[in-house]
Amino acid sequence: MFRGRLVASHESPARLEHVLAELRRRPLGELREPALDETALMPAVRAVHEPRYLDFLRTAWDDWVALDPANADLDALPSVWPLPNRHGFRQDGWPDNIAARLGQFAFDSGTPLTAGSWRAALGGAACALAAAQAVLAGERGAFALTRPPGHHAGPGFCGGYCFLNNAAIAAQALRDGGHARVAVLDVDYHHGNGTQTVFYERADVLTLSLHGDPRTEYPFFLGHADERGAGAGEGFNRNWPLPRGTGLATWRAALDQALQAVSDFGATALVVPLGLDTFEGDPISGFRLRSADYAGIGAALASPGLPTLFTFEGGYAVAEVGVNAVNLLEGFERAA
Ligand SMILES: [Zn+2]
């Protein structure tokens, strides 16, 4: 649902297929497809997401169709939201109606939930976990090529095409696997609001994000420079909101500051939510990075010398997403 109309989703299967095709053309390592075993996956998923939210995701499609069998041909989208208390709505109510429950858990109307959403989201988590296991086993780099993406999904909410936060699940798995300090450096065009929220009160996972300024860019309600973490996590979140039109020089200066923060933190592993919607040709974003720029960005991301896990996030210039992703990964590989 975009500006009052149902439109084709920018988050399409072709995005992933282009990356896969480019990885086959310019191989960087073994391609693995992890098994999807829900029972085995759930402890790692529950380490990041709330039980009531996971219950919602698991049953939402069946509940949607049960509301009206004709819904089977439609996307499940929210149409009513319980805005915060100052508007008077209760935050402790739990409606049975799936139309209301969609509004409790989805922060936008652009994230259609369909028959395969839960299984696809679980597949993403399986991919992120397999990448974490590869890194824990000694790989210098691993790329979780997933869709749907994950960095907008928080402990108890979906949005921005995201249902399970693959980067957060991977970061937590690295922590649980023995890494004392994990840094998450989000380079998608959009603020990694979900990941920030997951770790906002923690000092063991540093969250950093370079993105379009939320005063003008989605997700609008988070991602400002003054969000520095809270409680034990005070000082362990940083944001670099950048204006529309930002090109390589300004973007790289922000990246260098973020990489310095990774080093200062003493990170032992790095997770990079990798969005390619910073590309100048992206249809829904406003930065001006070029295809040739991504190799240097990959090399910069290798410079801290850390085991590094990439998760596939945004990027909607479909044909170029594959080239840009592999340019970045190749740049990382050469410098690593
Ligand atoms: Zn994005």
Automatic annotation (TrEMBL):
Question: What are the UniProt keywords, alphabetically?
Answer: Hydrolase, Metal-binding, Zinc
The answer to keyword Metal-binding applying to this record is yes
Give the Histone deacetylase domain ranges: 11-327
What are the required cofactors? Zn(2+)
Q: Which organism is it from?
A: Hydrogenophaga borbori
Q: Does the keyword Transcription apply?
A: no
GO MF terms listed in the record are: histone deacetylase activity; hydrolase activity; metal ion binding
Q: Pfam families, per this entry?
A: Hist_deacetyl
Q: What's the protein called, per UniProt? A: Histone deacetylase family protein
Q: Supply the InterPro entries for this chain.
A: HDACs (IPR000286), His_deacetylse_dom (IPR023801), His_deacetylse_dom_sf (IPR037138), Ureohydrolase_dom_sf (IPR023696)
